[in-house]
Amino acid sequence: MKRNSFISATKFVFMLMALFFFENVIAQYQATPQPQNQFWQRVQFGGGLGLSFGSNYTDVSIAPSAIYNVNPYLDIGLGLQASYVSSKGYYDSGIYGASFLTYINPIPQIQLSINLNESYVNNHYDAYYGQSAYTDQFWNTALFLGVGYRTGNVTVGLAYNVLFDENDNVYGDALMPFVRAYF
Q1: Each residue's pLDDT tens digit, 102-130
Q2: Are residues 144 and 66 in the same domain?
Q3: Is the domain of 19 the same as that of 74?
């Protein structure tokens, strides 16, 4: 009888140890947090597309961008841009560039922006009114300071190019309205 009680006690201890070990393994598995890369959770993508056409006129543009949300008050990012404008019989223009973006959100509804933009411009003017055809190629730097109203992922506002030069043949005006969306 002592032998059966010894075997029963051994079985009981073995089962108790197995359950304790199994439960301990499960508890450790559930309690151990997995390291997460927070970088991609703070990145937002957005940009703009443009298409305008009319009688002998075409304007196509694309401007993708990505920002990193440093904290609720500051976002930094990069953008690319490409545009093609054609006015048949007058000119063709290709503009390609990159932007460094900074958005400051002092309160959730207001967004201040700093956009440093470097673009390569290739303008080709056709011959007209006795003028001969020519091509104008140059780099253009623009620094837009803006303010906008922000609701959710969309910001609507106005930016001012502090480096605007009316002779640069890139921007028609120093003030530029904008609609910006990031997802």
Answers
A1: 999 999 999 999 999 999 999 998 877 77
A2: yes
A3: no
